[in-house]
Design goal:
This protein has 310 residues and is of the alpha/beta class. It is 53% helix and 15% strand. Helix 1 links the parallel strand 1 and strand 2. Helix 7 crosses helix 11, helix 8 packs antiparallel against helix 9 and helix 8 packs across helix 11. The longest helix has 34 residues.
Length: 310
Amino acid sequence: MVTLSVVIPATDRRATLEHVVSAVNRAVPGPEEVIVVDEPAHLGPAAARNLGARKATAEIVVFVDADVEVHEDVFARIRAAFQNDADLTAVFGSYDDDPGGSGVVSDFRNLLHHHVHHQGAGVATTFWAGLGAVRRDAFLSSGGFDEQRFPLASIEDIELGMRLHRHGGRILLDPAIQGKHLKSWSLTGMMHTDLLRRGVPWVKLLLEHRADSTALNLGWRQRIGTGGSVLLLAMLARRKFRLAASILALLLVLDQPFYGLLFRRRGGRLLAAGVPLHIVHRLTSAAAVPVALTSYFVRKRQGRPPDPSP
């Protein structure tokens, strides 16, 4: 039977850690080993995960964030994925559709993640460390997470997945592998993450590797929606309200499955808030493109290496 070591990066002392560890212990069947990396305190999540993976003794390392409460069948599903596919390098899952954070921004952000991962199910070219598993030998031979470039929480898991994929690794997104996200989001926190922790470094990564990924948030539906959001803002700025209303209607049709999810899970209040929040999310992501392009080409012109951090 495939053996599992769970690694939980917890150097930021999340208040949710006890709930996360309890959920891991309730899972049936459970993992062979649970490693909580809570020191040294200065370690970021990439370095903490690397430290835990080096300590692990099982064949498969399962990364679980310190604010993700896994479902009871998670480890059974992960074991089955690797046992049924000898060529599988890594598998990752999704947040569930019942977020544990408080407020409409938290519900929106966590349900968006759930929706995007369910839309992207299947063979993947990236990775997610919130709830993801990888063969320990492949992880260590790849060098693990790039803790030098990503000392803070960013896209260290995306970069690892792209690297594993380039080296021939087979990665699977199975959204049936689920956990409840306990994080509470604020609007400013969401925008900061979308712009500086994810958007800008992700665009830089694609530029460096001359890649044109359509994975997850870079899918064509998301690209069209982002372009439409930018156009909507432009029409509002020019006071072309009839055209803006038409664009908004098209966006509502484009994203009807997601908005239907918001309504089913939290009702009309979240749906009413979710539409403008979605537009803000996409505008913030769009703003990452010129910021990343400027930074990338300035550093390239100066002959400097890629940014060591996002």
